[in-house]
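Hi W., the pyridoxal-5'-phosphate complex you wanted:
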Amino acid sequence: MEDSLLITRRPHASPTPPHARAALLEDPGFGKIFTDHMVTVRWVEGKGWHDAQVRAREPFQLDPAAAVLHYAQEIFEGLKAYRTRGNDVVLFRPRENARRFVASADRMAMPKLPEDLFVGAIEALVRVDADWIPTGEGSLYLRPFMIATEAFLGVRPAAEYTFCVIACPVGAYFKGGAKPVTVWVSDAYTRAAPGGTGAAKCGGNYAASLVAQAEAIRNGCDQVVFLDAAEHRYVEELGGMNVFFVFDDGTMVTPPLGGTILPGITRDAILTLARDEGLNVQERLYSFDEWQADAASGRLKEAFACGTAAVLAAIGEIRHVGGAFKIGGGQEGPVTTRLRDQLTGIQRCTAPDPHGWVHKIDMEA
Ligand SMILES: *Cc1c(COP(=O)(O)O)cnc(C)c1O
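Structure:
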């Protein structure tokens, strides 16, 4: 049964010595340091998923004609493992990532990876590389992904794929505490069109966003905000984070999912936590004109971006071709702080978990 495919263990012959690992963990940054192992699973048409291994991390052997290198059949996920104060190792809603991975695969005409295999592969990697999980504010960032490996230049879905999971220890995303970010509203570029791949977590979306991100940096901003492709009117999301707006009357707004926005798991958790605490939460279209007017009138009190890597980041200033404006005097507001504290409390098991979001890994399995 491929659903419960056994993952063969082939431990690294000479893993990083403890003192060298400790030195790397002192200031890991984000996405620069990798653990000793990886998980790989292959898929071939007619045979399905097979050859699941947790093994030494090493470069792939890839034919130069591999379909991923030409037509970008690639999808990925991102989630974190945390070591709790009680010395457990936990994941946050990994089944949601597994489901989204299936949805992304579907959109990119790639094979569906069984959810149990997705979660099992992550657990296997976390178990073998558990010594790499930072304590304190850090976490182990997990990057599952799938690529088309078939050597073939014709244009059709590939007949061979590799699923892989790698891991990197990461520190606090914002060193020295969360600082409000400045965002650039792109006039020239859009991220996703109706009928396109906006709701799929695929590398191609990121490739297409980099020039807009570069434009944001040139304008002194940290991140780019995309407006809808059809009318250039409605706020959609950042390059890799969803966006929320908080008003003076207890209303909170986020753009609705509908094919052009990535359905963030952090977004979903924030919607639930905000409803729990009685905020009037609305998933509705919100135009850039409204954003400017609400900031000017003072009705808009806070705005923040959210995603797995940064969790919640307050948006302090907005810049665009026509000018600039601030929200909340450029400072982080109380709702943003409270929702971040609630979410990180659940993720790290320092707060109760009323929705059953925390997934404890059995480290002895
Ligand atoms: C991954 C991602 C997000 C955030 O999703 P989370 O599940 O909260 O990490 C938001 N937007 C884009 C474009 C993304 O790729």
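The first strand starts at residue 8 and ends at 10.

W.
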